[in-house]
């Protein structure tokens, strides 16, 4: 059992998310107010004081400003939903760019007056939808404007870009906006219009740079720029992950993660200890020594390696059984598929799972387990309909299998179908009353439902339920972990800290718990040193814990240490177990990199963030 990592990915326990995931490596315990969306859109998990979604610096600031302004526009007159479509009379002011006074001022004003008149004429054409005539007028204004009038000249270029935009001449838009920005480097309208042009021209990196500058200059108050930043981060992340993931080297997770993963199944034949009949008589008398299997079976050899925690040899031994079409072929297919999932190779796992499911003569427990794992894989790939179909089929063919209801309950939480999730957990508990995991996760589902519904009496009932679970199952680390998340959400930090300590006592090798406890220190006591110490301890325990690297990177983003943040995100990227997870991490890395470039280019610095408790609801579009 493992302390829950926030479910940023749509992954349930049978799929294989990052090494920081919950029960069995994939608990579906989400924070209140979060829906079953892709991991990369999650901004903050229950109990975690850090923003863990793509472009965290964007999302945190937006929420903070909303609270501070009560939904008003920013001080510069730019409202969050400002469309920036119309031309303007004057650009954003630039320091030192006022009109000069002196002997030549009268002549200059004459030229400038004529330029302004041409611009005003162009504005009338623009408002009338006569964009070609507007462009001619703005071009005239540019030619008449004195070259030292940077602000006015930049306005004329920006207005002409706006007209080109209406004609969808994106190259010309980008060129004119570049002229405007050269004249007035912090010209928000021109930067944003150029960002949109870069998006249309498929220049994602340039688009991200411009929209990042806009977000910082606007103080993260304009929703339109926030949406574009989120959109381009997602596109860049997917693009990079697609290329990187197909060429990645398979990586076996830590032994603790693998054992935790298998512990989330109770009706899984392949994870059960070897039967006495499968061992030689000599081996039966050699307790504690490596076993030699009785038969010349690749599958039994693989099972032996599982008991020895020699996981790297399991796939090859299963392949021998499958190639020989041995009597354990169905078991070997399922075990091989499971380890393909563990190393993040879903493409290799699917054919094996498909074959097991289609083997009508195979043990029904094997087929149901394959359906659970394929359904979980589909959810990880954001295919909830296929996922639901597999879980329902598993329930049809093996209605007495508690694992089906346990894992389907987690799926329902991810899909925000809490009542159905509770019903599945209840059925799992009916079939296996000793299932501590199902009882703990049922409590969390009820808590989440009460929290989102702002029902204080139901919240108290759910908290009481947690107390009963940990009293009844004092050895269940997951119960303490989920209770700690709820306690943190209720700002009962001291008690939450005690719960994490109990998790650590029960599972001292579970790196995820140290990350959660570290995050708690930041939120509770603003103790950065202690928080980083605990997260570093997580990495020391499990250097394959991508959750720890990701969290460390997010902290460094919020501290303004972009280079270190990028290094942490890159380490997490190399450990990603799915393409979707990798895309999320690339989004974080690209957001940090973009801020670094913008800071150098424009001399800007994003606001330094502290670790306040903010729960952001996920939506289909942020």
UniProtKB/TrEMBL annotation:
GO annotation, cellular component aspect: mitochondrial outer membrane
Keyword Transmembrane helix: yes
Biological process, per Gene Ontology: activation of innate immune response; antiviral innate immune response; cellular response to virus; mRNA transcription; positive regulation of defense response to virus by host; positive regulation of interferon-beta production; protein import into mitochondrial matrix; protein insertion into mitochondrial inner membrane
Stored Gene3D superfamilies: Tetratricopeptide repeat domain (1.25.40.10)
Gene Ontology MF terms in the entry: mitochondrion targeting sequence binding; protein transmembrane transporter activity; protein-macromolecule adaptor activity
Predominant subcellular localization, coarse grouping: mitochondrion
Subcellular location: Mitochondrion outer membrane
Region of interest: Disordered: 66-107
Name of this chain's protein: Mitochondrial import receptor subunit TOM70
Name of a matching Pfam family: TPR_8
Similarity section: Belongs to the Tom70 family.
Ranges: TPR repeats: 115-148, 368-401, 402-435, 477-510, 546-579
Gene field: TOMM70
Keywords: Acetylation, Isopeptide bond, Membrane, Methylation, Mitochondrion, Mitochondrion outer membrane, Phosphoprotein, Repeat, TPR repeat, Transmembrane, Transmembrane helix, Ubl conjugation
Membrane topology: Single-pass membrane protein
Keyword Lipid biosynthesis (UniProt): no
